[in-house]
Amino acid sequence: MKLDKSKKAVFFDVDDTLYDHLTPFRRAVGTIARPKEGFPYEAAYHRLRYYSDMLSLELGGAGSDEYESAVEDMRRRRFQLALQEFDIELSPEQAERMQAAYIGCQYEIDMFEGARELLQRLADDGHVVGLITNGPLEHQMNKIAAMNLGSIIPADRLFVSGDVGWDKPDHRIFVHVNERTGTSPEHSYYIGDSWRNDVIGALAACWNVIWFNHRGTTPESEHTPHHTAGSYTELAQILETAL
User: Fold this and answer.
1) Of 50, 55, 29, nearest to 41 (Cα)?
2) Model pLDDT for residues 65-102, shown as the tens digit of each residue
3) Given the DSSP bridges, would you call strands 158-160 and 188-192 parallel, antiparallel or unpaired?
4) Each residue of 97-135: pLDDT tens digit?
């Protein structure tokens, strides 16, 4: 597509950026493992995300042949490794049941307060609004459909790594988005919660990065996002000034 340097692009991550990804994790772990009262769900969730990213990277990403053949085992394994750090040993059967419960809950989505309104306002203002997310195409598209975002974001602005062929933090997925949408890196903004995938990946592509750090986590490297927001109220204020 022909480059239009005047176009401002605002793209969002999906999991734990548009909706609270901790909710299905909490339900799945609580149902299958039944941990003691006071179990640190948020800390365990962070370890699940770590192992999910690590194991996916080892398989070559969501677009690889190895990923397609081994994804179910990887999804079970990430639960075993994450919960093992919190003294919960899962059998393969328990891990499979937990993964099934986790997937089942992921399509019961409540977006973060203010998320839908911000997306709609950005689209109404004429900006190029879209999503860039890691994962298998069908799985991620089911989440997007559950949030009923089709009336706000056109299909050609939905970029899923399993379809595109590159997983964040590979900067090529962001370059691909610029090429497909006719936008430029200096006028492109990316909002995401993951330090490794979203902050590092988008910075490598020379995008403007807003770290959606709603959990108050610590930076994992010396990289510096352009802005940090802890809520959609803060995010809206940042974008209002930046755009």
Assistant:
1) 29
2) 666 667 788 889 999 999 999 999 999 999 999 999 99
3) unpaired
4) 999 999 888 788 889 999 999 999 999 999 999 999 998
Distance separating alpha carbons of residues 173 and 176, to the nearest angstrom: 5
Q: Could you give the angle at which helices 232-242 and 115-124 cross, rounded to 10 degrees?
A: 20
How far apart, in whole angstroms, are the C-alpha atoms of residue 18 and residue 44? 20
Residues of the chain with pLDDT under 70: 1-5, 61-69
Burial class (CB in 10 A: 0-12, 13-18, 19+), 64: middle
Contact present, 203 and 190 (Cβ < 8 Å): no
What's CA 102's distance to the chain center, in Å? 16
Separation of alpha carbons 230 and 93, rounded Å: 37
pLDDT of residue 65: 65
Q: How far apart are CA 84 and CA 89, in angstroms?
A: 5
SS (H, E, C) 199-217: HHHHHHCCCEEEEECCCCC
Listing DSSP states for 101-127 in one string gives HHHHHHTS--BPTTHHHHHHHHHHTT-
Q: Look at residues 103, 99, 109 and name the one whose alpha carbon lies nearest to residue 14.
A: 109
Residue 173: the pLDDT is 97
